[in-house]
């Protein structure tokens, strides 16, 4: 049935292309549609907003899954959600949060803010930027449609072999995981290439590497981590796909495979993944704390060094996830030392943020509350991380709720709080309105108290022996109070998110209009209107020092100094090809999930046709006239 639906979609899609997709009158009508303008956009700011909307949708899905998990574990011997359904919930919650929520929402901020911070008019590859987004969406939708067609993945978010092989996970569930993550992973790699090229080649004159804002630095290092971390995961998913769909034996012990190889491949990606999630959050806090402390970031150069060192050491710690595998004391000792060593550059950053606040005129806006709360929460997560780096202790903590508590303190207390701080901080720049601060603070306190109620008791649940990945527990084992409090905390976090959603809706309808610089910011994005014009800067600015906009406000005349005369501005043309290519990948993935080789091949044919069309397409773009650029607050 599903295959028939896919074939019907493909036929209708190809029919649309053949009958109207390249018909000039049809395209002219479509281009008048606002929806079509969003589908075909290559503007980095619009793509950032699309990432934000899509990440928000998947955040709601993953949050609902977490709520159902905690309801099941609220009381002992509960039968609300049991067995394989519970396994599917835990798998999809972890996978969705890490691959479809945390990094994409950070990508939203990167896409919108980084070109503005470096004084660029766009990213280096606008077409690829659009393609990366649509591949992320198509992979995410393919993964989540598993709830409707054939059952969701159930082998855990780490997808360990042999649990993920056909013998233990029959049906299409794990196929969705393998193919959905491959498609979205291609989009992530494309985006990383784009960010690196943009930062290296499109900085405004005077914007040297040691004048880059910290958020741009963390974007640069995060993109480099993606470049080296995602290929091993892609290779592992490719081999898993061949094991499940084509009968290979890379990980099947019956055919001579090795299940430990999957663990190595996954964690060579999986632990750098933690740092590529937390580094952009570090960048957000490095922008928020100086702005609301009215002080320059303390120890800028040491912060840059710490970011680069974290990115380097992040590839040298993956084995601490495998201390119980039995690789021996030498390997365990080396990776225990490297894991403890990475706490040093992280500690540098914590002290630098504290010293930035020390003696400052702190203004506790909602964004600053998230930054201050993050320091406490992340330090707690870091301390338990050092505990897990101690091999004898890890043998006791492993696969207990102590690990669950540590991981959530780092990801929720670090990455998600960074996302929310950046959300409140840059919302005026993105949408031209200021979020309601009173609602924002109510949202913060519900969310922040919820984090500690939800995850602090889980440390003690783990120390008392409660294993992770179980759907129930017996009464009178000392687990009742901790699980009840943890579930209450999850409901408080949910209330905080609901208040945030209400704040967004209220602000979009009645919120106060934001001026160009509502927070008295320090970096270049605050020098242009809110929201920025399509071309960002009427004239490419000349950067004269660190904190370029603050420098012009304090030591200049409050206007950016141009590095070029006022003239024609060339902008790239919108394109529908990225969307169609992503649809082709989606159809191909759906076909391979159900072993329908014809549908899979047809989807790839669509992709290759679009690539062929693109290779012969001349993108002349369009120009904006100089008279459209006057009065933008930039010296001529």
UniProtKB/TrEMBL annotation:
Keywords: Cell membrane, Copper, Electron transport, Heme, Iron, Membrane, Metal-binding, Respiratory chain, Translocase, Transmembrane, Transmembrane helix, Transport
Catalytic reactions of this protein: 4 Fe(II)-[cytochrome c] + O2 + 8 H(+)(in) = 4 Fe(III)-[cytochrome c] + 2 H2O + 4 H(+)(out)
SUPFAM superfamilies (UniProt xref): Cytochrome c oxidase subunit I-like
Record's bilayer topology term: Multi-pass membrane protein
Role noted for this protein: Cytochrome c oxidase is the component of the respiratory chain that catalyzes the reduction of oxygen to water. Subunits 1-3 form the functional core of the enzyme complex. CO I is the catalytic subunit of the enzyme. Electrons originating in cytochrome c are transferred via the copper A center of subunit 2 and heme A of subunit 1 to the bimetallic center formed by heme A3 and copper B.
Protein name: Cytochrome c oxidase subunit 1
Family membership noted in the UniProt record: Belongs to the heme-copper respiratory oxidase family.
Stretch forming the signal peptide: none
Pfam families for this protein: COX1 (PF00115)
Transmembrane residue ranges: 6-27, 48-69, 97-119, 131-150, 176-200, 212-233, 265-285, 297-318, 330-355, 367-389, 401-427, 439-461, 481-502, 600-616
EC code(s) of this entry: 7.1.1.9
Domain Cytochrome oxidase subunit I profile residues, every copy: 30-544
Domain of life: Bacteria
Pathway: Energy metabolism; oxidative phosphorylation
Gene that this polypeptide is encoded by: ctaD
Major localization class: membrane
Localization per record: Cell membrane; Membrane
InterPro entries with a match to the protein in the record: Cyt_c_oxase-like_su1_dom, Cyt_c_oxase-like_su1_sf, Cyt_C_Oxase_1, Cyt_c_Oxase_su1_BS, Cyt_c_oxidase_su1_bac
């Amino acid at each position: 049935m599903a295959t028939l639906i896919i074939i019907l979609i493909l036929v209708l899609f190809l029919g649309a292309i053949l009958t109207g997709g390249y018909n000039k009158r049809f395209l002219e009508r479509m281009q008048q549609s606002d929806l079509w303008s969003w589908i075909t956009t290559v503007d980095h700011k619009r793509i950032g907003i699309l990432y934000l909307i899509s990440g928000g949708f998947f955040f709601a899905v993953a949050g609902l899954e977490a709520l159902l998990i905690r309801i099941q574990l609220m009381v002992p011997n509960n039968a609300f959600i049991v067995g394989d359904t519970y396994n599917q919930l835990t798998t999809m919650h972890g996978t969705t949060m890490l691959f479809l929520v945390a990094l994409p929402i950070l990508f939203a901020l990167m896409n919108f803010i980084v070109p503005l911070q470096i004084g660029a008019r766009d990213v280096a590859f606008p077409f690829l930027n659009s393609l990366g987004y649509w591949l992320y969406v198509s992979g995410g939708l393919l993964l989540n449609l598993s709830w409707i067609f054939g059952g969701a993945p159930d082998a855990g978010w780490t997808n360990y072999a042999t649990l993920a092989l056909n013998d233990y996970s029959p049906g299409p569930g794990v196929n969705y995981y393998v193919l959905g993550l491959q498609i979205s992973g291609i989009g992530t790699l494309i985006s990383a290439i784009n960010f690196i090229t943009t930062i290296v080649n499109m900085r405004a004159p005077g914007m040297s590497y040691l004048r880059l804002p910290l958020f741009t630095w963390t974007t640069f290092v995060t993109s480099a981590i993606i470049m080296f971390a995602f290929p091993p995961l892609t290779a592992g998913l490719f081999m898993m796909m061949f094991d499940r769909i084509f009968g290979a034996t890379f990980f099947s012990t019956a055919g001579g495979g090795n299940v430990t190889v999957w663990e190595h491949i996954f964690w060579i990606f999986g632990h750098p993944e933690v740092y590529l999630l937390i580094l952009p959050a570090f960048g957000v806090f490095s922008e928020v704390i100086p702005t609301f402390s009215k002080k320059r970031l303390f120890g800028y150069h040491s912060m840059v060094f710490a970011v680069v060192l974290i990115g380097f050491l992040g590839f040298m710690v993956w084995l601490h996830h495998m201390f119980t595998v039995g690789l021996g004391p030498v390997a365990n000792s080396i990776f225990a030392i490297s894991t403890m060593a990475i706490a040093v550059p992280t500690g540098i950053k914590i002290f630098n943020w504290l010293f930035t606040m020390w003696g400052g005129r702190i203004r506790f806006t909602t964004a600053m509350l998230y930054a201050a709360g993050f320091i406490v929460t992340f330090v707690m997560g870091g301390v338990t991380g050092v505990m897990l780096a101690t091999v004898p202790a890890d043998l006791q903590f492993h696969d207990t709720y102590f690990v669950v508590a540590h991981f959530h303190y780092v990801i929720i207390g670090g990455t998600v709080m960074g996302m929310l701080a950046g959300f409140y901080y840059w919302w005026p720049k993105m949408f031209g309105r200021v979020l309601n601060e009173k609602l924002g603070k109510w949202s913060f306190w519900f969310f922040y108290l919820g984090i500690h109620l939800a995850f602090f008791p889980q440390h003690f649940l783990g120390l008392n022996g409660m294993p992770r990945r179980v759907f129930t527990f017996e009464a009178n084992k000392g687990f009742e109070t901790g699980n009840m409090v943890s579930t209450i905390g999850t409901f408080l976090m949910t209330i905080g998110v609901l208040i945030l959603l209400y704040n967004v809706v209220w602000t979009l309808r009645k919120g106060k209009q934001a001026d160009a610089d509502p927070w008295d910011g320090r970096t270049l994005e605050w020098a242009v209107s809110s929201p920025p014009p399509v071309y960002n800067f009427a004239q490419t600015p000349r950067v004269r020092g660190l904190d370029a906009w603050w420098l012009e406000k304090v030591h200049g005349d409050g206007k950016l100094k141009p590095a070029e005369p006022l003239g024609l501005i060339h902008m790239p043309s919108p394109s529908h090809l990225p969307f169609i290519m992503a649809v082709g990948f989606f159809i191909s993935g759906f076909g391979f999930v159900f072993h329908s080789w014809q549908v899979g091949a047809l989807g790839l044919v669509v992709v290759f046709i679009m690539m062929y069309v693109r290779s012969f397409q001349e993108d002349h773009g369009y120009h904006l006239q100089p008279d459209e650029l006057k009065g933008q607050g930039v010296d001529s």
